[in-house]
């Protein structure tokens, strides 16, 4: 699952300004295009630390979110930005749908989250191989969910910054604009509905409170296994900074609150914005607060 061996991963580095790092994903999806992983590397002289920045789903906002790794590097942090599976050149051959990461059943989603988290931890391997001891993680939207899982599983990650993200897939599946493709799939094959989902999630709160690690995943429902809120109690919440958009149609407020509560209700900033307008209107604010958090 999440902790498959990554010892034999080989990195190829190309470019001069913003470098491109290529490696074969340790998790095999069955699609060669998906398994050829790529990350952008923002270098800096005399770095004070390193950051993994994880973007959200869909292709439209990738270039806008490059603002964060660029600015982090300008402020002394070498930053690596992996391209998530099922995005850009990591799409299966013939697939051009920008929502490819969210397509399919819960078991298919589970595998995509496995691969995404494993690729993020492989980027941590790369940074550690470069000699970095202080490595942090920053994630936007669904990238924040993946960041939460990676931070829970990889103790080399020191601090986490989670921007307009959340947990508890009961809220996300049935109340987010982003997951419409999931709801359509469930309607077509009648594999799930709000009532069935709610029944399954009756045990989620207790399960998340008592979750002890990946060894317990096999006995859990598939949709629990990639839920950021499940992994929250494995993280020191004092080392997490959250930003919540108050008018977010993609990450429901209940979802953001759920993750924040399970992380211990530590530092959080509330933004008077929607999902992407959080970046449009508050990117400098987010950066300023994030740098202050990392520098302490």
From TrEMBL:
<dbReference type="Pfam" id="PF01738">
    <property type="entry name" value="DLH"/>
</dbReference>
<dbReference type="GO" id="GO:0016787">
    <property type="term" value="F:hydrolase activity"/>
</dbReference>
<feature type="domain" description="Dienelactone hydrolase">
    <location>
        <begin position="39"/>
        <end position="206"/>
    </location>
</feature>
<protein>
    <recommendedName>
        <fullName>Dienelactone hydrolase domain-containing protein</fullName>
    </recommendedName>
</protein>
<dbReference type="InterPro" id="IPR029058">
    <property type="entry name" value="AB_hydrolase_fold"/>
</dbReference>
<dbReference type="InterPro" id="IPR002925">
    <property type="entry name" value="Dienelactn_hydro"/>
</dbReference>
């Amino acid at each position: 699952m999440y902790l498959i061996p990554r010892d034999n991963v080989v990195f190829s580095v190309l470019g001069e300004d913003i470098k491109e790092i290529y490696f074969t994903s340790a998790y095999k999806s069955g699609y060669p295009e998906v398994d050829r992983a790529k990350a952008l590397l923002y270098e800096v002289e005399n770095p004070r630390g390193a950051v993994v920045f994880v973007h959200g789903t869909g292709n439209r906002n990738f270039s806008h979110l490059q603002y964060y790794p660029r600015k982090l590097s300008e402020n002394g942090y070498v930053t690596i930005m992996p391209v998530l599976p099922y995005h850009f050149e990591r799409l299966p051959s013939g697939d051009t749908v920008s929502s490819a990461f969210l397509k399919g059943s819960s078991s298919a989603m589970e595998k995509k989250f496995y691969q995404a988290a494993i690729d993020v931890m492989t980027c941590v391997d790369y940074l550690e191989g470069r000699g970095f001891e202080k490595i942090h993680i920053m994630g936007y939207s669904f990238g924040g969910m993946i960041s939460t899982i990676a931070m829970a599983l990889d103790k080399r990650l020191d601090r986490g910054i989670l921007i307009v993200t959340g947990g508890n897939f009961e809220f996300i599946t049935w109340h987010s604009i982003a997951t419409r493709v999931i709801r359509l799939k469930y309607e077509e094959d009648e594999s799930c509905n709000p009532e069935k989902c709610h029944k399954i999630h009756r045990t989620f709160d207790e399960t998340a409170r008592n979750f002890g690690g990946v060894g317990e995943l096999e006995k859990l429902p598939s949709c629990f296994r990639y839920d950021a809120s499940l992994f929250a109690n494995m993280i020191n919440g004092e080392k997490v900074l959250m930003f919540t958009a108050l008018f977010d149609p993609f990450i429901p407020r209940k979802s953001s609150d759920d993750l924040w509560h399970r992380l211990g209700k530590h530092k959080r900033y509330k933004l008077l914005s929607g999902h992407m307008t959080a970046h449009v209107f508050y990117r400098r604010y987010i950066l300023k607060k994030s740098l202050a958090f990392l520098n302490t």
